[in-house]
Automatic annotation (TrEMBL):
The keyword Iron-sulfur applies. GO terms for molecular function: cysteine desulfurase activity; iron-sulfur cluster binding; metal ion binding; transaminase activity. It catalyses: (sulfur carrier)-H + L-cysteine = (sulfur carrier)-SH + L-alanine. This is cysteine desulfurase. Keywords: Aminotransferase, Iron, Iron-sulfur, Metal-binding, Pyridoxal phosphate, Transferase. Belongs to the class-V pyridoxal-phosphate-dependent aminotransferase family. NifS/IscS subfamily. Residues 14-383 form the Aminotransferase class V domain. InterPro entries: Aminotrans_V_dom (IPR000192), Aminotrans_V_PyrdxlP_BS (IPR020578), Cysteine_dSase (IPR016454), PyrdxlP-dep_Trfase (IPR015424), PyrdxlP-dep_Trfase_major (IPR015421), PyrdxlP-dep_Trfase_small (IPR015422). The keyword Transferase applies. Gene3D superfamilies: 1.10.260.50, Aspartate Aminotransferase, domain 1, Type I PLP-dependent aspartate aminotransferase-like (Major domain). It is an enzyme of class 2 (transferase). Its cofactor is pyridoxal 5'-phosphate.
Amino acid sequence: MKKDNMSTEKLNLYFDATATKPIDADLLAEYCANLKTYYANPAAVYDSGLASKKLIQDALADLAKYFGVESRQLLVTSGATESTNTVFYNFAKRHRQQDVILLGAGEHQASQIAAYRLAKDLNLKLVIVPLADDYRLNLSELENLFKQYGERILALSNLSVSNETGTINDLAAISRLLKQYAPKALWHVDDVQGWGKIYFDFTELKVDYVTLAGHKIGAPKGIGLLYIREPKYFQPFIVGGGQQNNLRSGTENPPLVRALALANSKHCALAELDKNWKHLSKLRNLLLTELKPIDYVCHTANEAWQYPGLLALSFKDIRGEVLLHSLERYGIAVSTSSSCHNLAAGTKNQKVFGEPIFKEPFKDNHLRITLTSEHTEADIKYLANAIKQEVNLLRSHK
């Protein structure tokens, strides 16, 4: 479809890597080849089984080295949702006299619903830690809650990076507050959006559990990780054959674990993080500059605590979903919010907490745009021109 001042060629530009990152062709090729080679059950004691087991061990060793932890502290799961539910199951198992759970506002639905179920089943008090005006966890409010509940706190669960705004929580400050006011409380960090964007030392900050998802960094879907600070206290959520040192039963998929390690080495290398940050900052600034002629609001403008590859933009008088579908005509894929949030919102009996991150008049008229290292300045200009044309067109019909 021809658009004024734009090429007649329809591109295929993907700006939703926050939802899932496409798999690289070379990684996919190796994964498929490994499926043919390492088909044996890794629990088998013959040569091909031992080879499958070694593929897993080597992959986990690479991942453990990256995170600065031991392989035994990494549990392979089916994804972040399983990892998070496993964490809250362990909160329940380690519950004694503590009766308060702290949950950051704006958390992923897996954490919200698991926390609600845990609080309901054990008659615990679930307290939501509000966000500050900058969309990060409000540290003053968190400190007040620590002072109020102290040793009654069983656990705190919060994001490292928001999947809605890209804002980065001050994990070092949260760690200090925990140590000062609630040293016995368990701490879960949902690092699904942080993996490959920021890096923090699990051990130094004394995080008890960290949730990670493979498909966010370009691995195939269906695999994730759970970091466990003290495996000796861990209670398995899935029981059966006793795989993974009796911490999670179920036959492992060696090529999938290998693919996860490959995706990590390719997309999350520490040496590349700063380079990617600078590239994405440049693209982000270009997009915001190109959009200046139209009336918009950028909800995440402070670069000090903002991941530059994720932008939350609102356009006055235009619903985000309408603009999303308008951009599809240009071959552009963006989103309005978390894909999991979209599903949960339409599901009965799903408990979602707190106020919406974006208040009126921005509640329904924002776009979430994810930039990656693969995007170019030409891609950004094409995106900006498409947004400007569609915004002007939609406003002209008001």
